[in-house]
Amino acid sequence: MNQKDQSAVSAVSASNLPFQDLTERILAAFFRVYNNLGYGFLEKVYENALLIELKRAGLSTEPQRPITVRYDEQVIGEYFADLLVEDKVIVEIKATKCLAAEHEAQLLNYLKATEIEVGLLAQLRPEAGGSAAGF
What pairing do the DSSP bridges indicate for beta strands 118-125 and 129-134? Predict the structure, then answer.
């Protein structure tokens, strides 16, 4: 891992997220993908590449994990998380210059609709490389 990768991984892990070792491994894989592909592809391309990296790292990863939203015990909606890693961390990938409040709300709602405790919002941006935020 190069120095840029290590500082970004350490910055997020300093937030003391649950499953710290797992989140650090996910973030390291994310930055390897960004360093290899750079900015400019659609999110699906990064999702596919990250899936390869996570499986290479020996992590159980499910792409496009369905999330069912219920109200009064009735299904009212279904969404799909980009990746679910080790049944513990939802990873949402955004290839955008700026993250909006809606991106955070999307991930927080995914967490709320499941029993999953940790979510990572992985942003691929043109000017300063990738970034990640944990929830």
Answer: antiparallel
Q: What is the pTM of this model?
A: 0.80
Nearest residue to 118 (alpha-carbon basis) of 92, 80, 79: 92
Give the angle 92-98-99 at the CA atoms, nearest 5°.
Answer: 40
Say which CATH number the domain at 15 has: 3.40.1350
Nearest by Cα to 37 from 29, 56, 10, 6: 29
- The answer to whether the beta carbons of residues 33 and 53 sit under 8 Å apart is yes
Provide the domain limits for residue 102. 3-134
pLDDT of 6-62, one tens digit each? Answer: 334 334 443 567 888 999 999 999 999 999 998 889 999 999 999 999 999 999 999
Task: Provide the number of structural domains found in the chain.
Answer: 1
